[in-house]
Amino acid sequence: MESSLSTHKVKIPTLLEILERTIETHGSREFNQITKTEMTRGVPDPTIIPNLAEFWDRTTADLDHLGLTLRRTITPKILMRPLDFLKAATDFLPMGFGFLFSWTVPQKDIRFSSRKTETDAIFIHRPLVIALTILIAWLIQMLDLTGAHPQLSESDQKRLRLMKQGLNHFRNGFESGVYRKELLLKFLQTIRVFKSRQDLTLKVDPQLFHWLEIQLKNS
Asked: What are phi and psi of 29, to 5 degrees?
């Protein structure tokens, strides 16, 4: 009796499957680490209003930095090479999307206050900006970890590089837009167009307010 050996072809996981496994394995840990890092960076306090001299110094430095970046990116050498110019223009697209998107994100603070003590309050500065910053950084980190998988094909590696490059440009544009929107809001406060920013106020029970205070002290 003849015996036949059947050989099973090993199935190579797709890029989406590897990405899903990476998120299942590292997603929570990386998200917590990125959140902790981002929270320690701090954000501008909206109650601190610069005078006109400070604002002018910040604006001048920002314009100088922007001009230097453009001069380094758009050089005569690039303009003389259509393919290099097309690549530079393509890189600017996700950066432009990130910049425009950042202006749609409210920079309001959340103010928690107790029903009994209206004078005491807990502020969370720009929660939507922070949340989106964390999300973008987490997505980039997931793509990084996915790219280290040994079973990725060359074409999938190329897709990952393009995705990561696009996300990095989007993040640069987003952070640039957040900073310049903050600068504009500070300017409007400096020239007294409006005295203060409108916060989103949430009234909470005294017990919850006390719990929030404890969490902030322990963080």
From this structure: -65, -45
Cα-to-chain-centroid distance, residue 149? 25
Residue type, 140: I
Contacts of 132 (CB under 8 A, 6+ apart): 105, 174
Q: What is the pTM of this model?
A: 0.78
Compute the residue count for the chain.
Answer: 219
pLDDT in tens, 119-168: 677 777 888 999 999 999 999 999 999 988 888 888 888 889 999 999 99
Residues 158 and 149: their CA atoms lie apart, in Å, by 13
- Strand 110-114 vs strand 121-124: parallel, antiparallel, or unpaired? antiparallel
**CB-CB contact of 104 with 81 (8 Å):** no
Question: How is the chain split into domains, by residue range?
Answer: 48-108+127-193
Locate 12 and state its tokens.
């190579």
Task: Report phi then psi at 214, rounded to 5.
Answer: -65, -40
- pLDDT of 122 reads 75
